Amino acid sequence: MVSAILDNATLAAADIGPSLSVAQIKSALLGLLISGGMLIPGNIPNIIAAHALHITSTEWARLGVPLGLIIMTGTALLLWLGLL
Length: 84
Fold this sequence. Notes:
The chain is mainly α. It contains five helices and no strands.
């Protein structure tokens, strides 16, 4: 999960600016964190770890994409309701 954050650091830097509210920044960061964990990012440590654990991108996508979509939907709902 830490790697997902680091992989998305450039995108977050481009998206987050002083004109955004705290809620918008929180939403952007949660979205980057959750969506970054949906697939095995293409950096070398993650590829090596996935290979060592015998996890293919297809296998992870079958689990990661639906799970990530459920988590993103739940997070969006909680943000919309003001509970997060």
